[in-house]
Design brief:
Elements: H1 3-21, H2 48-72
Helix pairs in contact: 1-2
Length: about 90
């Protein structure tokens, strides 16, 4: 797996994991004290640094598994059916 392929896959996995992690532990302001001038549905404490760290760890674990499968040959990716590949392949 080339570095470019790894970076592209990591980027995609990271963003999917980030959107999955975002709702963890969020309490909206209407559940507590609403700050004047803000939307009542806005989060009280978004804890973004913790969520960024959790996302990076999750993406790292997923990419480690993908890399191990890719390099070990357990699932040969070159033999998977490709929908847009030329028929000469």
């Amino acid at each position: 797996m080339s570095l470019t392929t790894f970076a592209a896959l990591f980027f995609l996995v990271w963003w999917v994991a980030f959107f999955a992690v975002l709702p963890w532990g969020v309490k909206s302001q209407h559940e507590g004290e609403v700050e004047p001038g803000t939307d009542p549905g806005a989060p009280q404490r978004p804890l973004l640094l913790i969520k960024l760290a959790a996302t990076t760890v999750i993406a790292g674990v997923v990419m480690a598994v993908v890399y191990a499968v890719w390099e070990s040959g357990i699932l040969p990716f070159d033999r998977l059916p490709m929908p847009f590949a030329s028929p000469n392949r």
